[in-house]
Prior knowledge:
The protein has 360 residues and is α/β, with parallel strands linked by helices. The protein contains 12 helices and 12 strands. The protein is globular, with a radius of gyration of 20 Å.
Amino acid sequence: MNFEEKNWARELGKGIISVEQLSGKKIITESEKNKIAAVKDLFDIRVPQIFVENSHLEIKEIAQQFVPSGSELTIYPEELEDPIGDETWTPVVGVTHRYRDRVLLKLTYMCASYCRFCFRRYKVSDSAFNLTDAEYLTAIDYIERNKDIWEVILTGGDPLTLTDQKLKRILQDLNKISHVKVIRFHTRIPTVLPARINTEFIQVLQAIQKQIIFVVHINTHFEFTKEAQQALNLLRQSGYIILMQSVLLKNINDSTEKLSLLFKTAIEHGVKPYYLHYLDLAKGVEHFRVPLNHALKLFKSLRGNISGICIPEFILDIPGGKGKIVLNDANAVNLGNNCWEFLSPLDGSKIIVQYPEKEI
Length: 360
Ligand SMILES: *Cc1c(COP(=O)(O)O)cnc(C)c1O
Ligand code: SF4
């Protein structure tokens, strides 16, 4: 069956969402059940069906991204609920306005996969945070009244978990705002729920006159399944630029070889690596952290090893909402003892950040 004929809502529903399903399919052991149940209380489970049916969970680089681990219960004092300070830059519910010319519009906190290292895990998967109709209208009004806003970034959660009908309304509302020139989707859907990228969705997009851009979250070359390739192709052939953002994750993509393969595979499928994010200080994600001194060396090893067109920028979001910086030896000063100094691009202040003690 062609992927386009699959009903995406049904595919979404087939994902693994419970501890019972995980143990029934022998993805976790009986003895892990209690711990994983406690993890689920903190952050929902959703292992996408595409990785279940393709036996992809046997690949540890895939399984570790989506299958919960008891390590999530280990929380360090340095870790933060809202690691990149979204809440300090929230003028109205659902909008994060940190940089003058662009805003995040967070409509839903639902995703087609719950990535265990998610930096917004304090809200993601909790439907109580989804925008109400009144909040949505206030958010649109805010964007309309702020003439500085050139770009609206639809994120969340994953905006593509919304129905076409809802997306149509949102896109049409944004389409009417003349100072908004660009609409950007931040999504993981093309790889975790490729059936969502169907011709009906493309029709919704094609009624919009703004420039629409996709930034797709992908962390390993394994995620470029045949279905994902078809979804990405459909987007590209319909005229949309596709960029990629990835997170540097321990044991998943933390070697020159693995990163090279990820970035080259992306380019081979018409996807331009945009950002490689250094892991934020979210709660319960320390087991995914590559120490920053090692991460800087690793990133440096790419230049010269692979084509320049494959190389993204290495980015760190300074905790507390102090903004994104490009990571390099000049911008990240190692003070020792797991302390680093960064320069905020927003106000020029020097920010000292301590990471949890780790053995290297
Ligand atoms: C990351 C982020 C953006 C987008 O940043 P770009 O560098 O343009 O990709 C916009 N607003 C907020 C609040 C962000 O955290
Ligand atoms: S898709 Fe994005 S927002 Fe959703 S859980 Fe994964 S990282 Fe978080």
